[in-house]
Amino acid sequence: MSWAGKILRVNLSAGTVTPEPLNMDWARQYLGSRGLGTKYLVSEIDPQVDPLSPDNKIIWATGPLTGTMASTGGRYTVITKGPLTGAIACSNSGGYWGAELKMAGWDMVIFEGKSPKPVYLYINDDVAELRDAADIWGKSVWETEEHLKTTLQDPLTRISGIGRAGENQVLFAAVVNDLHRAAGRSGVGAVMGSKNLKAIAVRGTKGVGNIRDPKAFMAETFARKKILHDNAVTGQGLPTYGTQVLMNVINEVGALPTRNHRDVQFEGAKDISAEAMTTPRASDGKKHLVTNQACFGCTIACGRISKIDETHFTVVNKPQYWGASGGLEYEAAWALGAANGVNDLECLQYVNLLCNEQGIDPISFGATVGAVMELYEMGVLTREQIGIEAPFGSAKALAFLAEETIHGRGFGKEVGQGSKRLCTKYGHPDLSMSSKGQEFPAYDGRAIQGIGLAYATSNRGGCHLRGYTIASEILGIPVKTEPTATEGKPELVKAFQDATAAFDSAGVCIFTTFAWSLPDLAPQLQAACDEGFTVPELEKIGERIWNMEREFNNAAGFTKADDSLPRRLLTEAAKTGGSKGTVSHLPEMLPKYYAVRGWDPEGRPTPETRARLGL
Question: I want to staple 160 with a disulfide (CB 3.0 to 4.6 A). Which of 168, 177, 488, 559 is the partner?
Fold first, then answer.
């Protein structure tokens, strides 16, 4: 059936590791990964729990296609109640760790309680035990991975863990695997650190051999790989330029949030774009981009491997950063660059390396720095408070604040709380470009109306990956919709949100949806797991997952008022580009979205909706 059929329950307080059978009824209702992990979480914790208390739980979950030959089948999800938002936190990662857990014979790992001392979980097929982590506590992600592989004498061991940011309770700390792949958003790394859990080291040699119909599965996956190969985005654009292919595209249409969303176009976009990454530098004649890289089983290979300019001011005396390593993705390049008015590509790469090395979400970090720079230019924050002059465009301030934040020093402690808390503390809460406390990514909600609605209604706070309407509104996938129009956007957002929940839960990458839709996912799941996974059933599963997450948030204290955008997007019109003169029309779209969802006017699923979805 493609599920391993087993989970590990780890009680950190008691120091016990106990295997359990997977709840197969839930697996058929919620599929796996995001959906199934969330079902376990919401069934076991109080929605009002303090995210950083021992009573919160944190779950690593794979999907039924994780570890199989399905293209991009290397995904896993970390699920918990998020400290940045207080909402459901569900963060997805690629690389090789997820497949390794599945090949060790486990669908998920549930952690509860808090260890009295730093520990890591060691898994080698059926062997699973907590081990002392005193010698790696305080070390970076990179140092931890090297140490564990050396100590365990197995270079094929895969590590998912935290750096100093998670240990220091940076509220947007990430969980990082394979050096530069991350479950990046919502502060899942801070929850891991709060439990004195440093890492999970996994070695799996069993493979995934319980496919329902292996011949049919091979045929279906081969056919879908060809679709990815033949598609312009997944077969050409992403392999060649990575997600950074979007930088100039989004800037040209006037939807690139710049200087804390003051502007919608960045004059320095070309300097930090995919094209700039492939252009030889004036300093040494070498290209920033070294090569692309793929995660487990991926035929797209959108990952970037880059090499920084060794003479740049950020690293001239730091040779540990001179090697080729994880390069800039679009969201990171935007958050560290345009959001702050910084067009220094090498500085962006340095800060990106720090985020990977110490486990920090570059989106929330960069967007928070954007708020700091605006407060500095307003005179609310001073050089003495911050520790450096911090106007928009300062690469030196960006690098300085990154170093301070990852080490929990000085003003970096305040940056590590995220923009909502920081801006509220200094009297300007509306300058936090966030929803539910999570910072927005690289698309302006005025210029692209659908994504603004998606930000406001996202269950994990401001997020593009919960309903990537950019595909339709900008790229014309699967159909082109006008970005500044509001008609039909509630329906569009709901459709994207539900489909994304199904793809996430299957254990494949959301980037496949540039070429695939649910009719491509369904046959693969039918061959691997169960003939019952039809397109209508997957649509219902996605909707069930979305409503389950919503109900958790409602029980945690969220209301209609939290489905909001900052005043800037609602009242300050875009200044340039195709959306010049436009504000977000969220107040017009939100009631229609609730109606389409089958929710009451306060944003609560109706009894009829709950009954239809089996909640």
Answer: 177
